[in-house]
Design a protein that fits this description.
Length: about 70
Amino acid sequence: MRGVPDDSEFYFAHSYYLDLENRSEIVGQTVYEREYPSAVERENIFGVQYHPEKSYDVGTQVLRNFVEM
């Protein structure tokens, strides 16, 4: 999440969420009706629940981080 400010807003198109047992893998959370993980990382795997391609400047930064890793 390098270069992505805390409290950034991202575009979600659904209400699904991941319920993780290992909370240390959570690198981003969202609060909408409840708190849930929206970005996770384990070893060399990074995943997001939102659509970075539709999330303007902060989404572009997330995609840039994918490419530059």
